[in-house]
Amino acid sequence: MPSSGPESIAVIGAGVSGCAFVAQLRRLGYTGTFSLWETGRGPGGRASTRRSRQDRGLRIDHGAPLLNITGAMEPLLLQPLLAGGWIEPWPGLIAQLQGEATLRPGQADALGLGQLYRGRGGMDHLCKGLLSLAGEAGEAWQPHYGTLVRHLDWKDGLWQLLDREGELLGQAHWLVLSSTLLAHPRSRQIFGWEEVPLKQAAERLGDLRLEHALTVIAGIRAEARSNLLVLLEAAAAGPWASLPFSLLHFDAAAQQRWGLQRITVQPLSDGRCAVVAHSSHSFAADHLDVYGTHSAVARMLQLPPDEGREDTVIAALTTALEQVMAPWLPGLNLATADRQLMRWGAAFPLAPGLPSELSCCPSSRVGFCGDFIAGVGFGRIEGALRSGEQLAHELCALA
Ligand SMILES: Cc1cc2nc3c(=O)[nH]c(=O)nc-3n(C[C@H](O)[C@H](O)[C@H](O)COP(=O)(O)OP(=O)(O)OC[C@H]3O[C@@H](n4cnc5c(N)ncnc54)[C@H](O)[C@@H]3O)c2cc1C
């Protein structure tokens, strides 16, 4: 049913939920304009793919390697994404590692239950597909990548988005946050910001629902992950292709033993192979201050590399990977392989999250979407997709 919706919307974050929100807005016939603000180089967020202009064949899914749909009703955007060829059924083999070295083929964890899919040609194609459903960028909508929104202000009935220097980036009638970064006190600890940007702006609005939402968001905690990315040349990649799994997840005892939670094996089309070893939560918690030169936070804060400490973490994860793979790849030595550290400070939000009835605050014209919204798929891509869809329906219904 066509709906006018608010005149203009500023969406912060081009991860799955922000992209799902704008895709669903358009499908509902939204006729206003929107802008999309993303600090990363492109869409994807925690479901993005590392690529390189210098190395066209490089493609590493360094965050989520797949998505799983567990709800009785599938997300509305799933079939359009499949029909457009943006996602495909996940073709890999899952296994669980129990304790020291017991392999349970076919045994899934919570991230491997239900129907499994992946971005076709890389996980970032999930978000690219969602944006294609929102229509061509142009007058109706504008993406702004590589742009950190640092301050928020409410002036003359419009939300203003400002950069680090306080310069105006853009303004809109509605503000949609698809991340808690501007609403959570952790931004003060991580970035040394003096205030929580949305809280400061909200204090002047007197919207009790928004204040309630901000109080709940402030209590949401998240688990971190320190991921080791390994790029193997074609000569060394062969044995990885014949493993009895392409996604190995670790039970609690194995996580404690190895400090790892998952290993994903990602063959590249040119014969090389990427391997991503996801650390356990407790390993990441013990090394929280080691960002990794390539992490989003390091880029945002323009942090100087701490190569000594980073090398120590890379070495610890490499040793764990070499040892845990020994039953299948005896004598594995990754010393000469290209290895990088990718730290996700807030990889998975912890339940219960923000109740969905607080995700839309009409008096202050603020909406929230993201995997931190309580409901089916919480903390996963499924939840991010559903929350974006849901918020689009709520905003269009308000018109
Ligand atoms: C290592 C890892 C493995 C995972 N594995 C799985 C899995 O197997 N299956 C699964 O379903 N899920 C998995 N997840 C979780 C999944 O990635 C997330 O649930 C999902 O991607 C969240 O999407 P989102 O849109 O809610 O948030 P995000 O992806 O975090 O998107 C928010 C975006 O907002 C941007 N942003 C925030 N603040 C600002 C600002 N002020 N200015 C500009 N931009 C801003 C951020 O850069 C980010 O791109 C994994 C996550 C990680 C980290």
Automatic annotation (TrEMBL):
Kindly indicate where the leader peptide sits in this chain.
none
The record's listing under Pfam families reads: NAD_binding_8
The protein's superkingdom reads Bacteria
Check the record and name the InterPro entries matching this protein: FAD/NAD-bd_sf
Q: What is this protein called?
A: NAD/FAD-dependent oxidoreductase
Q: Please name the source species.
A: Cyanobium usitatum str. Tous
